[in-house]
Structure formats: C-alpha cells, structure tokens
Amino acid sequence: MAVEDQAPPGFVADDEQEGGHDEEGGHDEEGASSGSKAEAGLIGHRGDFPATPPPAPPPAYAPGDAADGEEAPPVAAPLEPPPRDSRQKRLGKALTSLRENPPKMPTGPQLPACPTVKCNLKDRLQQFPQSYCDTLSRRPWAFLLLYSIVIVTLIPLTWRPIVIDSDLDAFRRVDGPAASAQSAYLASLGSMRAVRSKTDLSQRTTFRIEIIYQAKEGSVFSEAALRDVRAFELQLRGLAGWKTMCGMSDEAAQFRCTPGESLGNYVWPKRLDNYLDPLGYFRLAFDGSAKERFPVPAVLKYLGEGLAAPHEPSKFLPQGFSGESSGLVRSLFTFTSASLDDSEFKQKYDEFIASDLYPALAGMVDESRKPDDPNSWDKPKTVKVYWRGHGVDEYEVDLALYGDLKLALGPLVLSMLVAWLKFRSLFLSFAGTLILSCVCLLAYLSLPVEKVSPASCLGVFLIFAFGFGSLFRAQDLWRGSRREALSNSERLVELHKQAVLEMLPLLGSALCFYIYVGSLLRPLREFGMFLGTAMLLACGSCVAVFVPVLLLHEGWIRPFLQRRCQKRCRGWLLTVLEPTDVRIRWAPVAQKIMQISTFRKGKPVLGITAVAVFIAFVAAISVAATTTVTGMPEIFPPSHHKNAGRPVLASFAPASDSKVPAPFEAQMCEPGRSVGNSICGLHWCDIAATPDNKSLAVYPDDEVAPCTCHVVQMIRKSKFCKTIELTFSVSGRRAVEIPTADLVALTRSFAQAQWPLAQQVTAQSGPSSRRLPSLVVEDWASGETQVDDFIALPSISMVFETDSIEISMSSCAEQVICHCGPKKCTPPDGFTVSLAAMELPIRSAKNSTVKSSSSLAPSSEVVALFGITPLKGGILADSSQTSWEFDADFDPASPSSQRAMLKVCNELPSSLRVIEGSCWVVDFRAWLLARGEQFPISRFTDFQLTLKEFLISHPAAAQSMWLNEDNNLTATMFVFKVIAGDGPTQVMNDRAQWLQHIKTLNSEATSSASGCMVTSQIWVDMEALQEALKSAWEVTFNVVLVVSAIGLLYTMDLEIMGTILVISFGICSGVAFFVFCIGGWNFGPWELTILTVFFSYSVEPAFYIGHAFIQPGLLAILPKQDKGDVLPALADDQGEVPPDLSDLGLPSPGEPIASPGEQSLVAEAGSERGDGEVQIAKPLQPIEKAAVDPTTLSEVSSVQPKSEEAPEAVLHRSIRLILSFVLMGAIKLILCGFLLLPSQIRLFQRLGTVAIVLPLLCVPAMLVLMPTIILISGRTRREPDLFVAARYAYAKTSWMWT
C-alpha cells in the first residue's frame, strides 16, 4: 500500500531557509534551488538505481507547519494498494525464490575460502563506516547523549583542583646535569632529620620575607633613605596580622620578626642611658625605633668586627660591598612555627598574606614609584622597594593570573561572536565553544602534574584561537558534501573521507606542539603536551561530536526554530538565533586579490616584499644579537618590581635564618675607661677643639702621621712603683698598616721620652697586636663622625731605680692612648696630653696591608655532597622536585671514607678559587687529636658514638649532616665559598674544573666514598642561559621539519612546499622585526617559542591553496572509487539473465526503491500460510532525504578544480573558498589580541601582540604572495612533483623486475 510522501518530523528544506546563491561557490551551501523539496528524495541510500525521476508526489506537509488559526492544506488521498490475494502472493514468492536461488554474479579468480568468524569480522569491519554513518544520520541525538554521558562521567572522576605553579624560576631552569644535582640537594634538605626535633628551630616551618631597598639617587645610607626604610618597617611591624603571626611564632625565634633582621635596627637604636655612666659608657638597644640616627660607618664597623654575630654586613648589603656607601640594603623577616604541627600556622599565614601583608607590600612599591609632584606638600619616597618571600610571591602570581583569566572571558565571548557570524547559528556557536571548553579541561586532566605552569594558560588562548579552525572546516565540508551525495548517510561518508585530508594541517600543528616535549625547559614541555593533546582532542571532537551537532542542527534545530519563531517570535530574535541573512560577500575580495596577483602587478609586489623582508631580517638579527639573553621570560612588565628587581635581588648572597639572636644591647665606651667584665661594642670620643684638627680623615701617604698621646698623671704613683707596665692603645688607619715590631719600637721611644727616669724600657715578648672595638670620633659642633681603627700593642715594662725601701712595691699597670689620625679626641677624665712626640712614618707599599681582591669579589657557594644520589624524574617532572635517594654505598664509619672527606676539604687547587670553606671533618680531626685519639677513627672504635660526642661540643656541625632515626650519619655536605665567575662561559669552565677535581678524588677513593658530587646554584643559572636557548633552537628546527613534512604529504609537491616555506620565512622576519626592533623584546628561548607557535598557523592557508592547485592532478592519479550509485547487473558468468521480476511489482532500474517519507509495506521475508496468504513483515523505515538539488549532481561541482582550467581560475576559486575561513579566523585572532594587551602577565601581553601582528602579515602574504609566485613562475602543470618523480623513478628502475 502506497502512502503519501512526507518529510520526517521537524525537517524543513533549506530552500525555505535560505534562497539564492552563496558566494562561496555555485549553489547556496545552506540550501537548494526552489521547487526541489519533493525531488530531493528521489535518490535513496547507497545502491539506489539512478533513473528518470517519477512524477513528483504531492507536497509534503509536516505537522505543525500551519500557524495558529490557519487551516492545514488538504492531504492527498492515499493510493489504493494492489489486491492482497494477487500482488502480495507474487511478491512473497519472488522474494522466496530469490533467497533460494540467488542470481549468480560475474565471478573473477576464486579465492580460497576463509573461516566463517574471520570473514564475518572482516565484513563487519568493512561495513562499519557505512553502518556508522547510517546510524548517525538517523540518530545524531543518541551520539551526542552518549558523548555527554562520557564527558560528564570522566571529568568528575579525574578532576583535581587547578593550582598554578608560581615558581617563576622554573621558566629558566633546564633539566641539565647541574640542575639535577642542585634539585636533589635542595629536595634532600627537607629530610636531614629522620626524627624531627621539637626544639630544633631549623626543623620548623618558616616563612621568610626579604625586602630590598634601592636609593633613587646617591646612597641608601642617606638620612632621607634610612628614614623611609624605618617608616616602612615600622608600618609592617604595626600590622595586626603581623603581630598575630609573630605572636604565634616560637618564642626563641620571635626576634626574626620583631624587630626582625634589618640594618635599620642598628641605624636607629634606642638609647637606654640619657647620661654617661660613671664608668664611662652608655647603652644602646637595637630595635630601630629611635629618631636619632646612629652613624652608618660606626654601624658597619660594629657589624664587621663580629660583635653583632650572627649578623654581619653581608646579611644586609650586596656581595662585593667594600666601601662606606651602597645603593642597596636588605632586611629579613621570618615567622617560625611554634610546633611541628603547622597546619593552623600555614592557614593563618595565608590569611595574613591576603589581608595585610601583600596589600602593604604592593602599596609601598606603588608609593615608592610615584613621580615627584611639585604642587604637593608630600615628598616622594627616596627609595624603591623590591621584595620576595615565601607564599607572598605565589599569591602575587596567582592574583595576576586569575585577574588575567577574567580578561580571558573577553576573547572567549569574542570568539563565540565570530563563530556566530561564520556558522550563522547561535546554536552552533555555543556548541563549538562548549566543545573547546571541554577539550581544555580534558587536556588539563591528561597532564601528570600537580601544579600547572602559567605557560599552559597561554595554551587555553591558543586552543580557542586555533581550535575553531577545525570546526569551521568541518562545517565547510558538511556544506560541500551536498554536491557529492543526496542522502545524509552518503554525505557523512563523503565528509569523513575528506576530513582525513582536510584535518592533516591541524594534526600537523598538534604534532609540532608535541615536539616541545623534547625541550629542556619543563614549562615548555608541559605547554607542548597540553596544547598538542588539546589540538588532537579538538580534531577528534570536531569529527566525532561536532558533526552530529551539525546534523542535529540541520535536520531538527533550524527547521524547528524557523517554524516556531517565524510567526510567534519577533524578527530580531530569529535573526539572532539563526542569522541566515547575515552574509559577507567574499567574491569581490577574492577578485581583487587575483587582480593584484596577476603577472603585471605581481612583479612589483614581489620586488617590494623581497626588499622589505631583507631589511626586516637584517635588522631583527642585528638587534637580537646585541640584546642580553636572560634565559627567563618577562612574566611581568619591565616596570614591575619582579622584573626591575631581578638584578637587584641577584646581587645579594642567599639568605639564611639566624639560629640565635644577635646581641640586642651594646655599650659604647670612652677610650681608656674600664667597664668591668663587659665588652664594649665601640669606643666613642669627642674631637678636641684645637687648631691642629684637620678635615682630613687620614694623612696623605707622603706625609708622616703625628700622634697625640694621652697619659695618666703618674708623678705620685712613680714614688711607690718600681715597675710600671704600660699598655699602648693606638687609633688611626695608618697604625694598623705598620708592622707590629715597628710600631712597638716607636712606643718604646715614646716611653723613654715621656719617662726619662726609667732605667730600663723593655717590650714584652708574646702575641702581636690585637684589634679593639673601633673608635668613633665625633665633631660635636657639626655632628660629623669618623671611625678609626683601634689596636692594642704588646705591653712595655719600665723599671725605675730607688734608694728607699718605702718605694719597693709591686708593679703598677697604666695606659697610654695615642691618636694618630688628623682628628684628635679630648682626653678622658684622669688623662692628660703628653708632651712627648710620636710620629708614624710615611706609608709605603711594603708596610701597607692590601685586602685580597677575593674578599671583595662577588662570591658563590659550591656544595660537596657525600651520600646523596639524584634520580631523574619523568617528562613533566618538576626539576625543582627531582627525586633523590641516599647512597647505599656511602659508609662514613669507614676509615677510607673519612680520609676521602678530609681530602675534599684540604686538597683544593688554587684554580678552584676557593675563598673559605666550612668543613666539620676538619674540626672533627682537630677534636680527636686534642683528645689524644687518631684520625681516622680506628676500625674497632664506634664512629657514630664518637661523632655524637663531637656534636655535643660542636652543635653547629649537625647543620651539615643527614641523620637517620638513630641519629647516625647517613650523608653530609661541605660548603665552599668561591669567587663567582664573570659570565656564563667562565662559570661553566669553573664547574668543569670542579667536576674534574671531584672525579679524580672519586677515582682514588674506595667504593664507600666514591659517590661525591658537587653542585652550585650559579651553575644552574648559567647552564639555563646556555642550554635553554640551544634547546629552543633545536625545537624550532624540528618544528620546521615537521611542518615541511606535513605540507609535503598534503600537497605532494616540492615546488609548492618550497614556496610556502619562503613565504613563511618572510612572515617570521616581519614579526621578528616588529617584536625585537619596534617592541624592544629581549631575545630568549621563550620569545623564540612564541614565534614558533604561530609558525604552523601561518602556513595553514597556503596548504589549502597549494592543495587546491594540484588537486586535479592528484585525483587523476589516485585510484577512483565507484560510489555505487547503480546496482551491479544480475548476470552470471555464463551470460544468463535473471528472471524478469517486473510483474511482481518490484521497482525496475531507474525507479526509486521507496519514496522518501513513505512507510513501505514490502516484506523482508515471506512464508505462505496454510491458506496461501503471505505474512507481511514489519514495514521498512523511511529513507532519509537531503535537501539538495539533484540537478547539481549531474554536473561537475563548480567548487572543485578542473584539470583543464587555467591556473588563474583554479587559484581564484581556491582563494574564494578559503577566504571566509581565513579572514574570520584572522579577525578573531586580532580582536582577541587586543583584549590580551591589558593583561598583567607579560607573556599574555606579548602573545596578544603577536596575535595582532601575525594575521596582518600572514593573511596578505598567503592570499596574495602565494598565487603571485605560482602565476609568475609560469607553471601550468597540475600534476604533483612527487608523482612525476615517482613515475620517472619507476620508469628508470622497472628493468629490475621486467
């Protein structure tokens, strides 16, 4: 029984949606010509008979087409079916006959039979693509539901919180040998004690904040600069959160946070005594709260003489400081957990950072950089502030990243808007954005990392920039499939066939990103794996998920919206949801491009372009070669304190927490006054108001230095003393430069002149001179101070002669104070100025003591380790967390191991430039010898027990040891302070010498101590500078090779691929000129990476143009596949013709099997009942129809190149077809780049800059230069080069097998 031909529910032909012609080729891609609705279903699924179309059935009318209140049009009466007793019987018999005696097909060579299971599996595999497409065309919603269930299930199961790795040093840390050793050393520091001590502060959780001040002008020791430092630190210590955190810290370590470790505490000390004590001293408390400044030279002397240990100048001043002025000063503040359970302490610290600490630090940074306002009473700060600290650095990076991620919503919305214009559907735009968002999440979950690098955040932007390209191509293929097939099933087959080739450039881009996995930089490896995985998922989702979305949109969503919204909704709403009328005419643009690419206009264009590329290339190379390779990307802008303060922070030695507090109080003493058993911090005196005082600090070298000596009135004492012991104290810089023997001879002469009655003046034999706390000489009138060296000489004995028993008494001790500098002190109480003269000789080279240059040069630390072995991690293992293990072969109890450790400390060649070393084994040997024991410890002595006894008297040595549960030594280290090399080359040469020296020692040691290794942080930094850029160049070279291989596979033409590479070189030269010459970028590995990332994007349009140009030659050589539009003839090899079945009512060739929309009643199989009736099987499903004009199938598609066409026509057509895809992507990339420019993260800003510049260069180059070069070359051959070469090679080598 025949039924009315009607459309599936919800289906509306595209000619009702969009009429006319599309500019992207021939007929409208979104619809067919009018009047073809009924004709569109004439050809069914694969295997239908092509024939003359039968008379069109009445127009289909789907339920719901009529508007409310409108009467539905009449439906044609159904046709009367043939009589059941005749037609159905004959039909059943015919089908039964065909099953029992099937017609013989023409046979070829017979193949051996195969097992049934294997043949069935093979048949199923061959039929799977067609079955998949058939099922997908009927139930696209089922596939989307399945994918949704998989994603909704997979993401929660594999979800982990997104934590950003804010360790910026990871950007310049390479996975080289130096980094591996240093990482193992740093990671092992957390396991130095198997059993953590509750009283050892070094095993507590600590959070350190390091603040560095830089003077804007002059010295940081100026009054204004020091005042600003004091005000800022008082502000910090006054924060409520600061007081809370310091109160929660261990009592023994609260000195680290209040008052902290700051030079300002010594510069602004509080006076505890308002008057000079009768003993001649006054006290100071170093808390930094005073308003009267202590002289900076006096502070430096106090710190430098070791009286403020553990504080010393190197803790507060940069390396290499040797004078009295510095532009930098550092302060340290540390919070220490009060117990081993630090969970609450960490939580409070995080809250303190967010609420108090970071706002205060950021506010000080901003305030210190305010320009001077002449109209304001407020004076600007005289110092710039830089800081770094535990937790606060991570918080700042996280804050900037999350702020920039909010800005990333702009590119996301903009990408969705551009996709809306390209898809002409809000539904497809939203679906594409949702798919790419899921791709980002799945790519993130596939990364085996705990913390995500900021570089991966760049990948999110690139996914939305590049990922939409695959979706755009999928829609173009789906539209173009209408010209290759009628049914949706066949369209899907054609789409998947073409997608394999069309997605090849995108797959090549994903492969290029995977090349970054071979980089030495871990963030770059993570970036490559994340982006490569995302691009693969984007391509797979495009074919697997977005194609059902397209099918659902075309068959259900768009017809439903047009039916429901056309009369019920406002016009603008339908335009927003389905803007079918929003079109851009690309044909005039393509025509204009071809006019520029013609032979006459193309030559000037190529000439100008070649000159511009040459100039840009030379300029970019020149600028890049002269810039400093930092090895680290500029995460923040140059003005940010992290970037601007990087060299400032690097100028200081690594900070360490003080184990004990420095003396909080100190006594300032008058010269010659005894303070009992107390130690004077400094000596202090006022300048005598005499005319001979000079403004000079020291006497010139070519002048003698007269001394003024103060002596005690000893006239009466001399009557009762037979022997007087004179103690000479001499001040002045000249005094410390004269050899002690010469200075003692001068004091003897002075004593003889001062006491002529002395019969004998003898210098005591014994130790040489010793230094006293320095003398601060103050000019009370001007307030100026000067610090002079102060030394004590060996005592001098004077013997007097007497005739009286009365004066025969014991010896007396007296003091003599001599000031040999230009500025003289006033005599203390009880002293008088001596009339005897003493002069220091002219300063000469032989009696001058010059400080070693090594003590003034910048230094670094080299650590020698015994018992630690580094282990290499995985591909994405953080180099800062490289695994390590204890060396099982290391046995410190072995005498050979003890000798090897001592040898490392004592046998250091001068080429290693060691300044000093910290080796407990040297002290251990001296301790043993002092006890009368031998070193190494004898075999029958318990080494570990002896070592524990040594640690009781030398507890500091335990800081260099790894102890197990029994407090036995399992590993140890020795630290050497060495002169830092100048530049990467010298540093790496120093490293090579160290490695060679240790290798020699290891070869001479036994197996119990042959695993010594050395490491240094400066080696890691210099290795990164050398290896990071080298690795980036290797990755870039590999990317170019992969892009070339993919392009060659896609185009099969060497000439086309060579043209693409030349154009790409010009594009990269232009981008390099802009970023290095105009933008002022420093050339480094990350800058090179950003340029490489966009390289694959720039060549993609050229791939499509080149492929379209040689496609006719490609199709002419590749084997053609019969689309199977016609069933094979039913004749056997004997020429027998099958019986005529026309009388059975079966469709004849040329007649469709079933009309679309008809519920067929043809039986699948029939069997006669007892009454002769045939049982009717279930009706067949209606054959789907596609709204395509069948007349277009009889002619060659107007959008496919033809081999007989001229090159101009082919290029014009290919440009017109890809113009919307390329320009829409370029516009989206440019607009997104503008939205990235306000980002705080410098990498995001630079990525936005390249995203703007690259399309402006790439689009004209690929759309204009590519056709121009092809046309000017005069090439008319359309056959690919590789096929020509293959045919030539085949012809030349065919003699080998013929």
How far is it from the N-terminal to the C-terminal residue, by CA?
63 Å
Count of DSSP strands: 24
Segments where pLDDT lies below 50 for 5+ residues?
Answer: 1-85, 803-810, 845-856, 1113-1199
Report the mean per-residue pLDDT as an integer.
Answer: 75
- The coarse silhouette is elongated
Number of helices: 36
Structural class: alpha+beta
Describe the structure.
- The chain crosses the membrane at residues 141-163, 426-447, 453-472, 499-517, 529-552, 604-625, 1032-1052, 1059-1081, 1217-1237, 1249-1272.
- Residues 18-30 have a biased composition (Basic and acidic residues).
- It is found in: Membrane.
- Residues 62-74 have a biased composition (Low complexity).
- It is a multi-pass membrane protein.
- The protein is of the alpha+beta class.
- The chain contains 36 helices and 24 strands.
- Strands 3, 4, 7, 8, 9, 10, 11, 12, 13, 14, 15, 16 and 17 form a 13-stranded mixed sheet that branches.
- A hairpin with a 5-residue loop joins strand 22 and strand 23.
- Helix 3 (140-158) packs antiparallel against helix 17 (522-568), helix 16 (504-515) crosses helix 33 and helix 30 runs parallel beside helix 32.
- The longest helix has 47 residues, at 522-568.
- The model is unreliable at 1-85, 803-810, 845-856 and 1113-1199 (pLDDT under 50).
Which features does this protein show?
single chain; 1298 residues; alpha+beta; 13-stranded mixed β-sheet; 5-stranded antiparallel β-sheet; elongated; disordered N terminus
Give the SSE map.
Layout: H1 84-100, H2 116-138, H3 140-158, H4 177-188, E1 206-215, H5 223-237, H6 240-248, E2 261-262, H7 263-267, E3 270-271, E4 281-285, H8 296-304, H9 313-316, E5 328-336, H10 343-368, E6 383-389, H11 392-407, H12 409-423, H13 426-445, H14 454-480, H15 488-502, H16 504-515, H17 522-568, H18 571-577, H19 587-596, H20 599-626, H21 641-644, H22 646-650, E7 665-669, E8 680-686, E9 705-712, H23 717-720, E10 723-731, H24 740-754, E11 758-763, E12 770-778, E13 785-792, E14 796-800, E15 812-819, E16 831-833, E17 838-840, H25 853-856, E18 859-866, E19 868-870, E20 884-886, H26 895-906, E21 914-918, H27 920-930, H28 943-953, E22 961-963, E23 969-979, H29 984-1004, E24 1013-1015, H30 1017-1051, H31 1054-1078, H32 1085-1093, H33 1095-1117, H34 1207-1236, H35 1242-1273, H36 1281-1293
Parallel strand pairs: 7-8, 8-12, 10-15
Antiparallel strand pairs: 1-5, 1-6, 2-5, 3-4, 4-7, 9-15, 9-16, 9-17, 10-13, 10-14, 11-14, 12-13, 18-23, 18-24, 19-20, 21-23, 22-23
